[in-house]
Amino acid sequence: MKRMLLASDVISHVALPGLGLAFLLGFNPLLGGGATLFLGTLLIWHLQRKTGLATEAMIGVVFAGSLAIGAALTPQEDLVEALFGRFQPLSLFTFLLGAVAVLLIIFVIFRFKEQLVLSLFSPELAAATFVRLDRLNLYFLLVFSLTVLVGLRFMGALLAGALIIVPATTGRRLASNVSHFLLGSCLASVAAVGSGFLITAFLLPRFSLGPVVVIISALFFALSLLKKAA
Questions:
Q1: Can you give the pTM of this predicted structure?
Q2: Residue 42 contacts residue 53 (beta carbons within 8 Å)
Q3: Which CATH number is correct for 4-159, 1.10.3470.10, 3.40.50.920, 1.10.10.10, 2.40.420.20?
Q4: Residue 182 — very low, low, confident or very high, per pLDDT cuts 50/70/90?
């Protein structure tokens, strides 16, 4: 899990075959993207256990195949939407489903926070304290994929990982401990998405939501650089 930050950008591409298949057959892209994303996550976890190679290496292997399959399946006219997303008005059911997913992510992160931190710094010590590393790694990957899925529809497969990478980096710049890091990352992400919604709704309606959110996230990170290192 130590080098999973950059891998988050890659794992979002695993959803591309499902998105392409959904556009090709005319069903909900989130269903297709979610299915291949979680199947890919289970495949990554299984390959990592069987081969003993690093998780991010397995993500890279699955990513290469997924990107090729997704590009082949996605109709040309839908490729931009699959890669960069497109915001659509949310139904009450979709909103509630997204809210439940977010609450589940928060619950799992705080429920397993100590085990995750311990496994990051000392896997041997974590194993000695009866932390089941294989199962913990699976939980981590599944939550990771669920986080990507929440932003997939309006961020697209290419930009969804930015909702993890940039706010997490901003939070790390501003925080001095794990709790503050988690809080800072969440606030940076919420502020970027909220600002992006307002800007594209009222100021720049011709702009796509996903790129605007990423630009704002990058600006937040640039502002965090003004803080002097402790």
A1: 0.74
A2: no
A3: 1.10.3470.10
A4: confident
